Amino acid sequence: MIDLHIHTxxxxxxxxxxxxxxxxxxxxxxxxxxxxxxxxxxYEEARPLAAREGVQLICGIELSTKLHPAGGTGRPKTVxxxxxxxxxxxxxxxxxxxLQQQIRHERNVELAARLAELGVPVAMEEVxxxxxxxxxxxxxxxxxxxxxxxxxxxxxxxxxxxxxxxxYVDKHDPSLAEGIRQIREAGGIPSLAHPIRxxxxxxxxxxxxxxxxxxxxxxxxxxxxDHTPRHRDRYEFLAQRYRLAVTGGSDFHGDNKxxxxxxxxxxxxxxxxxxxxxxxxxxxxx
Length: 286
Ligand code: AMP
Ligand code: FE
Ligand code: FE
Ligand code: ZN
Fold this sequence. Notes:
10 helices; seven-stranded mixed beta sheet; binds fe (iii) ion; binds zinc ion; alpha/beta; binds adenosine monophosphate
């Protein structure tokens, strides 16, 4: 079994890259990919240990992008895009990723100001200490629980941080097409993360996936902790129909996503076979 969707303390996970590698080995995973939001720092940190422990480690990333609705009216949709690199990504992509970190930082400064206005201040220094280069809303949420403003992470999102929350600040994410292009030009394989969160069903969902395939998307995530077996079957079917590969993983975040386990997801609903990685290798020709 493999797990191609894992977060560490380099982004919004609560396990260090070392803990992830050691546990992956302990539970017998054949390969893992660390896919932190907007950073390769967790992957880089895990690399020497993975080599020593004999755990195959695939370089990955998860990017936040926006998909503008066809026709140009209505609100853009946030779409998470995974990128897998079977060879190390080059300087152009690394610079572009740095730019995404800058955009994130600017959003965080605005978000901190909004929270202060609302009488629930969270200092940027505290957020930065916790989230390093990739501080995000989950770090704000856990600080808000600690300060007693809310009692759970979910309440922090519902009241303040979510799109409908009082302190929500839009992040100027790149378009999905741009994300796909950056990953492919760096020799990576772009995969649509947790398609269930497109929140579209039936023909609408299929139209979106067709549109993404035209943009150059190469895979969709079929196994995910938020997918039931029926969802998985549907995404495998859609992948085949639009000549996309499938990927899969738990989207493990440690304590930031209670109930999701490394390798196996929620109640063992994730079990990604090794052949998924073989198919990706043949796509990347390595
Ligand atoms: P950011 O990239 O800083 O905008 O934060 C996005 C991250 O926050 C996502 O990857 C999730 O881990 C988490 N998140 C977003 N919306 C919610 C929500 N409604 N409830 C819980 N976690 C959320
Ligand atoms: Fe996350
Ligand atoms: Fe995601
Ligand atoms: Zn993720």
